[in-house]
Amino acid sequence: MNTLGLSIIMKMGCICSKESININGIKYLVKEHLGEGGFSTVDLVENTSTRKLYALKRIKCHSIDDQKIAMQEINYYKKLKHPNIIGLIDSSFKGSADIVVNATSEAFLVLPYYSLGTLHDYLIVKSFAKNYLETKEILRLFSEICQGVKYLHNFNPEPLAHRDLKTSNVCLSQGMVPVLMDLGSCAPAKVQVCGAQDAQKLQDLAAERCSMTYRAPELFHVESYCVIDQRTDIWSLGCIMYALCYFKSPFDVVHERGDSVNLAVISGILPFPEETPFSESIHDFMKFMLQVNPSERPFIDTVIEKLQTLRNEAESVI
Question: Per the database entry, which stretches of residues form a coiled coil (predicted)?
């Protein structure tokens, strides 16, 4: 058989071997791999009947505890309904996880597919072009992100915290509308820490599920007796605001150098460029959110009030 014939057969084999997944009676064809995290993978899939594209998140569960965490994430998706928070299209479990060693199950979450990608992707493109966003656009994007966070923080019957806010967890829908995604770290906002064991458990969980360069100082070293609340998200918002201006979290460069992010975070020093198109009031706004002491950090309603003042000032500039 000639090389061309073998090549065609191999290509046909690839096409024929594309994975298909049935979720609650609906068949999806896997088109390509979009990405993965520590606990899940995300694929681009197509509904074979409607030809509509979706993002399929798969969470591998190796235990009953893993299954509970995945189910908690699904339940949050079902409960939370807001234009700046991603919605759940469908979900299911396959396999079974029990006390048997190596038993696994898999959670499947069908989510909207955003062809524009994430805010992280968008900022990378802007960074390569060395093209700063205009102040008005930064404040608009940030305002809509804050509306999603406000919905979480004011949720009834219990306020929630996202706990992993970062530019790669903000999708961009058509019209450049930011949408918060990945509720895998979402949890009740207020955590009462009673003793060293509680502190270590929360610290380990944060190290596992909260991205280092967006993680609040109080989650790097959790005190034995304290209350952690939704202001961990305010710190992350400060890092997102910085990234909207300068393309990365203020602590990404520290991480890339191999230096201690923990020490950089608790230092309270923000590395602003000497030459910048942004006003001192924009820098002050970031500092306002990036207070090392969580008790001095504002709640989301105060952040939004200050943000509105900045938007009004920006609109008045001709």
Answer: none
DSSP 118: B
Task: Give the single-character DSSP code of 112.
Answer: E
pTM of this structure: 0.91
How far is residue 204's CA from residue 304's CA, in Å, rounded to a whole number? 31
What digits encode the pLDDT tens for the residues 43-62?
A: 999 999 999 999 999 999 98
Q: Which alpha helices (H) appear in the chain, and where do they start and end? A: 3-16, 64-79, 119-128, 135-153, 196-209, 231-246, 252-257, 261-267, 280-289, 300-316
State yes or no: is 164 an active-site residue: yes
Query: Active site residue: 90, 121, 164, 182, which one?
Result: 164
- The total of other beta-carbon atoms located within 10 Å of residue 75's CB is 14
Q: What is the pLDDT of residue 65?
A: 87
Domains and CATH numbers, the chain: 16-112 (3.30.200.20), 119-316 (1.10.510.10)
Tell me the two tokens of residue 159: 């306020």
